[in-house]
């Protein structure tokens, strides 16, 4: 019934026996998970997991270079990502974007990689999964400048910005995805965003293994916890839970059009 549109199951050192974990995820009612890469190696593992572990839940994957992992970037990596994404299970270019959180950030390199991967998504006719941390102004500017490359759409993953910023992304045709932080007690700004996103543009995720929702905050997150995100969104929006879950599933299939 539920879809987790953004998780990182490609962490063997954190998750161990993945088939056993997948059984628990399926038992929680989560029938589809998008497994997201952050560099070519993690993207290749996500692709391999999606092909090998094709039972319940259904696994799909995204391939991309996270802005904080560009120290490993090599010439030819975009071609390697493109090759992975030829798979029927490869649904998006991601996780890409900007992250200025750390002091030694090479902002220029991040911008170049972001723009290059937007071009890759356009060439492959695939949507993008966008990460933005402490870089809202530059993220929005680059997306506006590259609006023509967003013809296949995209999502602001694990959104943490203001209602005003969300509205700007919505004007670009992007989706807004909510993760565990929307359940946190101090998430007043996210509460407001959750109420204004149109029903046809809302998505939900865990960003596992990070950001476990209440009441599991501080523990290792897994896609089974996406149920708590759905429950909080339904409460904030005054919607029936199963109807919201069905809407989000349809939204995900519309954006990530390879999902069956």
Automatic annotation (TrEMBL):
This is TatD family hydrolase. CDD domains: TatD_DNAse (cd01310). InterPro entries: DNase_TatD-rel_CS, Metal_Hydrolase, TatD-like, TatD/YcfH-like. The keyword Metal-binding applies. GO terms for cellular component: cytosol. It comes from the Bacteria. It comes from Candidatus Borkfalkia faecavium. The keyword Metal-binding applies. A divalent metal cation 2 binds at residues 131, 157. A divalent metal cation 1 binds at residues 6, 8, 95, 207. Keywords: Hydrolase, Metal-binding. One of its GO terms (molecular function) is metal ion binding. It holds the Pfam family TatD_DNase.
């Amino acid at each position: 019934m539920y879809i987790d549109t953004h998780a990182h199951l490609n962490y063997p050192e954190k998750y161990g026996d993945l088939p056993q974990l997948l059984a628990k995820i399926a038992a929680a009612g989560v029938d589809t998970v998008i497994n997201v890469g952050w560099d070519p190696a993690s993207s290749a593992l996500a692709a391999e997991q999606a092909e090998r572990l094709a039972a319940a839940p259904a696994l799909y994957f995204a391939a991309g270079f996270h802005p904080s992992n560009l120290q490993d970037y090599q010439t030819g990596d975009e071609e390697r990502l493109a090759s992975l994404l030829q798979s029927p299970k490869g649904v998006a270019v991601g996780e890409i974007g900007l992250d200025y959180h750390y002091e030694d950030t090479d902002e220029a390199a991040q911008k170049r990689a972001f723009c290059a991967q937007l071009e890759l998504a356009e060439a492959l006719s695939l949507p993008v999964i966008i990460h933005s941390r402490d870089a809202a102004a530059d993220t929005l500017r680059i997306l506006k400048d590259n609006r023509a490359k967003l013809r296949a759409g995209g999502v602001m993953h694990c959104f943490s910005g203001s209602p005003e910023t969300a509205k700007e992304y919505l004007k670009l045709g992007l989706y807004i995805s909510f993760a565990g932080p929307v359940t946190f007690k101090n998430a007043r700004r996210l509460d407001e965003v959750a109420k204004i996103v149109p029903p046809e543009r809302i998505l939900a995720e865990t960003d596992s293994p990070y950001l476990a929702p209440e009441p599991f905050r501080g523990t290792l997150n897994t896609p089974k916890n996406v149920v708590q995100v759905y429950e909080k969104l339904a409460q904030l929006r005054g919607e029936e839970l199963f109807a919201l879950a069905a809407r989000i599933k349809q939204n995900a299939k519309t954006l990530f059009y390879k999902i069956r």
